[in-house]
Specification:
Layout (H helix, E strand, L loop, with lengths): L2 E6 L14 E2 L2 E2 L2 H8 L6 E5 L3 H9 L18 H16 L5 E5 L8 H13 L20
Parallel strand pairs: 1-4, 1-5
Antiparallel strand pairs: 2-3
Length: 146
């Protein structure tokens, strides 16, 4: 199945300026979902949706595509579905390409496991009537402190 990983990485952040390019364990946060997606055989394209030139450059350096710059209207706190929808519309309108699966990833979850993503993709293939799969985990601390 044609699969694209769309990584949401805007420049603005309420608490940490340019959070997506800040380093964690020697790598910028943005590098984690790019590396994850590039290491999964079923993913055809790894695309970063951003509004920031520095994030764009970093994404390209780590091997992702940045075929467009995200419009300001969806570069603030908006539902992630709008960001993914924008990317899919771009692929259809500008490239004539539509993936069968769009995987949404974010730099804010740098420890996402390959096995979890692969299992989600497998579930979608096994259940063509499903529209989506999401990963969750049991909260072990008060949500406000997470």
């Amino acid at each position: 199945m044609r699969t694209v990983a769309i990584i949401h990485a805007r420049g603005g952040s309420k608490r940490i300026p340019l959070k997506n390019i800040q380093e964690l364990a020697g790598l910028p946060l943005l590098a984690y979902p790019i590396r994850l997606a590039r290491n999964i055989a079923g993913i055809d394209r790894v695309v970063v949706s951003t509004d920031h030139p520095g994030i764009r450059e970093l994404a390209l350096n780590y091997g992702a595509e940045v075929p467009f710059i995200r419009p300001a209207a969806i570069s603030e706190d908006v539902p992630s579905e709008l960001v993914t929808e924008h990317a899919l519309r771009y692929f259809i309108e500008k490239e004539g390409w539509l993936p069968e699966i769009a995987l949404t990833l974010t730099p804010a979850t740098p420890f996402t496991r390959t096995a979890d993503v692969e299992r989600g993709l497998k579930l979608l293939e096994e259940h063509p009537d499903w529209d989506s799969v999401v990963t969750v985990r049991r909260a072990t601390e008060f949500p406000h402190w997470m």
